[in-house]
Amino acid sequence: MIFPRYLFAVVLVLQLNLKAFGENKASTPSTSEEGTEEVCLEANCPQGSSKVQTPEGQENAAELRAGHNEPFGSHRAAEREVETLPYMISPEDFHQHFVSKHRPVLFKGGAKHWPAYTLWEDEYLSQHFGKDDKNINLITELHPGMKKDVIIPLCLRCAEMYSKSFVTHLYTGTGETSSKLHIDTEEKLLAVLRGARTVLLVSPVHSNDVYADEADQLGVSPVDVEAVDMDKYPRVANVEYLKAEVSEGDLLYVPQMWWRLFRTAPGRQRDVVITWKSKPVRVQAQEQAALWKELKTAGKPERRYSFGQWLAASELWVQNVSSAAPRLTCDLQNSPMSLYSFETMKEDLENFNGPDYLDDERCVFDDQNPKCPCNYAPCLEDDQNPECVRYVMDYCLDFEDRG
After folding, report:
1. How far is CA 301 from CA 52, 196, 207, 214, 372, in A?
2. Are 191 and 110 in contact (CB under 8 A)?
3. Confidence class for position 60, pLDDT limits 50, 70, 90
4. pLDDT at residue 300, as a whole number
5. Going by C-beta distance under 8 Å and a sequence separation of 6 or more, which residues neighbour residue 113?
6. Distance of alpha carbon 372 from alpha carbon 46, whole angstroms
7. Most distant CA pair in the chain: distance in Å?
8. What is the pLDDT of residue 274?
9. Are 367 and 375 within 8 A, CB to CB?
10. Which of 57, 145, 211, 255 has its CB surrounded by the most CB atoms within 10 Å?
11. 307-321 vs 3-22: helix axis angle to the nearest 10?
12. Which segment, 10-24, 88-102, 330-344, 364-378, is predicted with the most confidence on average?
């Protein structure tokens, strides 16, 4: 039993029933005997409810309206910054500590060694690929010829991590734009080559708080991210989010199904987006049966086919099984040296030159060559004196023998 198949099955059901859900959105909020509004807890609010969680039913109007008619994120400070690493990591570590746990991470400077980082100016792209997109915002599949300028990050060099090949897209923009708050069904690695952007990330556990069930387009929150109407969408007050400031040359990993909002800085923008489908974690049958039952019946019965509730429950499922994810072996990347050729490699081991030496007596060059440094008097006296070093450097230029 593999989780993603059921997700897409439910998405199909949701699309067929989305209209029916919409008819129930205007349900009238109930009140308690004292005339105060009932409190629903976080993601368990009934369909169409406009309640938010307040301590002991006491509403703090100023706090609940914080961020009203302001950009999304103004309702509270970020829970924390996205974890940042100043270095690249292996695919085994990337999968174990981030992908399998749906844990965002920012690799500072992770794309600065790409040819694309230095070459992709407007003139270069226009001359080589006929691209003239200076004044438009555009997302296109990456031109095949441009892929030679993009280096697959080390953290992705493991076929065991993904079920299909990578898909790459090129984003170009004029800056000062915002996306909608939305999800993506695939894993994403964003490489910013020009410009900068602020990214807000919201865990799927808050899917009901961003009104996933009331969206006109599945997977896109109806909340206006430029001016949040806290009267219409009061549960936004519950939303916790992570924040990442992504600069030129940085790589940002965004887990699948996480809500994301991109805000670009003024000026030219150019990004490469690499997406892939993760292989799902397999767990023991008895564990899987229990988790699936919990996922299927998550929340109140009337919300069993709620898209928001499904997203929240599935994220909890991922967190529950992440500890069972086996560490990748990346067999294709762990090749022995015997599969490679080296300049001084002797094909016939029987003819491998020279006897065994003590460490202080060993000559690592081909001593059958009369010009070998092993036979050069100054090197025999002191292999670190400048005359010997100069001789060795000249020798290596003349002969394919690197010692």
Report:
1. 20, 44, 17, 18, 83
2. yes
3. low
4. 52
5. 151
6. 84
7. 104
8. 95
9. yes
10. 255
11. 160
12. 88-102
CB-CB contact of 373 with 388 (8 Å) = yes
Which amino acid, one-letter code, is at 39? Answer: V
Cβ-contact 24, 48 below 8 angstroms: yes
**Which residues, listed in sequence order, are joined to residue 201 by a DSSP beta bridge?**
242, 260
CB 61 within 8 A of CB 52: no
Q: Which two tokens stand for residue 294?
A: 């919990």
| Tokens describing residue 293 | 């039952």
Cα–Cα dist 373/362, whole Å: 12
* Angle, helix 307-321 to helix 285-296, in steps of 10 degrees: 160
Question: Is 201's pLDDT higher than 60?
Answer: yes
H/E stretch holding 15: helix 3-22
Q: From residue 230, how far is each of 63, 69, 270 by CA, in Å?
A: 11, 7, 33
Query: Is the pLDDT reported for residue 399 higher than 80?
Result: yes
| One-letter amino acid for residue 299 of the chain | G
**Look-up of token digits 């990337």:** 94
Token pair recorded at residue 59:
């509403």
Gap between the Cα atoms of 264 and 73, Å rounded: 15
Asked if 71 and 226 count as a contact pair (C-beta separation under 8 A), the reply is yes
Do 335 and 367 touch, CB atoms closer than 8 A?
Answer: no
**Token digits for 197?**
């952007």
Q: Is residue 274 within 8 Å of 189, Cβ to Cβ?
A: yes
